[in-house]
Amino acid sequence: MARGHWGLLREAVEHLAWSASDQIKWLGAMMLPDELALDFDNVYRSSWLSREAGWITDELSGYLDEIDRLLTDLTEEGPGPWSAEGLQGHPAWARLRILARRALDLTPPAPWTVSSET
Q: What is the DSSP letter of 109?
């Protein structure tokens, strides 16, 4: 179960790390930008699975917590940030992409195969 969660977490963070144009392309005409937040929120809430497996470091946890906080802040702003224009121009989205790229650097595709010996 933790392995499946890890894949979903990695995918949600990757989507947040994409450029605005890639996010808009992925969303297409059928999904709204809030899908990016909903996908993240779903796996963030169950991140205890990956934490218990030892795959979420303190550093990664900090990035994930900050991403969650920024997405909450955007939600509290109302509908403005949740549009193609918001994805492209809102400064919080630029900050989210930076945090997501940093988090993605700390999320190997298969942490269960990474040796803890150095």
A: S
